[in-house]
Amino acid sequence: MKSVIVLFGKPGAGKGTRLSEFLEGKEEQFDVLSVGTLLKKVRMKQTELSQKATSYMDSDKLVPDDIINAIVIEELKAAEKPVFIDGFPRTVAQAEAMLGAGIYPIVIEFYIDDDLLLARSSNRIVCPSCGEPYTLTGFKLPKKKGFCDKCGTALIKRLDDCEQVVLNRLKVYQKETYPILDVLAKANVQIYTINNSSPELARAQFAELLNSL
Ligand code: AMP
């Protein structure tokens, strides 16, 4: 098993964005496991497991730990390159299962203030086809208003960027996910924190940290 780097932080904290910037030109050197994306693939399958997982995702609840652990831990063990994981562990039970399976990751926590996170998510639009993110105002406007620069698809607002959904996810994060840091620290897992309030600083800090590992 290769080294595992957990990207930790509130949903919408910008983990995926920082990672895709860092990986530009280095895609061959790393594996990336995004549990959200993995579950979206599971959704396509007509198995009992996928139907069970889908019912939780559709009601914006965390999928039960036994399902997640079964899917994710095997993938991590099978990794042949250093692997970044986004979206796991999200509960103390998942963190304990990970440690129990002998996976001692490096953890990078992305910190962002709730108010800033809410403001960013209300400003975000995304291409439903290729996933490229844009902003309604500010720094990443599409060249042609409302359409993706890369593939020309009409941009949409994701349901999980709506205020009520974001607030609910923050509540779940605080209750279920944040306490993981304590469990990992007690197990002597290395935890680094990057303040993602300023994308420029965070981008540089993230690259510097990864290059030093
Ligand atoms: P995401 O795109 O990472 O927010 O994930 C989308 C949905 O997948 C979440 O709302 C959860 O229902 C489910 N999910 C993703 N990661 C996990 C996890 N580690 N544990 C439980 N459910 C998860």
What portion of residues is helical?
Answer: 40-55%
Strand content: 5-15%
| Radius of gyration, CA atoms, in whole angstroms | 17 Å
What's the tally of helices? 9
For the secondary structure, the number of strands is 7
The strand order across the widest sheet is 2-3-1-4-7
Bound molecules: adenosine monophosphate
Mean pLDDT: 92
What is the terminal-to-terminal distance? 17 Å
Any idea what the shape is?
Answer: globular
Class computed from helices, strands and strand pairing = alpha/beta
Largest sheet: 5 strands, parallel
TL;DR?
The protein is α/β, with parallel strands linked by helices. 46% of the residues lie in helices and 15% in strands. Residues 11, 35-36, 39, 56-57, 60-63, 68, 87-88, 90, 94 line the site of adenosine monophosphate.
Keywords:
five-stranded parallel sheet; globular; 213 residues
Could you characterize the architecture of this molecule?
With 213 residues, the chain is of the alpha/beta class. The strands form two sheets. Strands 2-3-1-4-7 form a five-stranded parallel sheet, sandwiched between helices. A hairpin with a 6-residue loop joins strand 5 and strand 6. Helix 2 crosses helix 3 and helix 4 packs parallel to helix 5. The longest helix has 15 residues. The chain starts with a strand and ends with a helix. The model has no long low-confidence stretch (mean pLDDT 92).
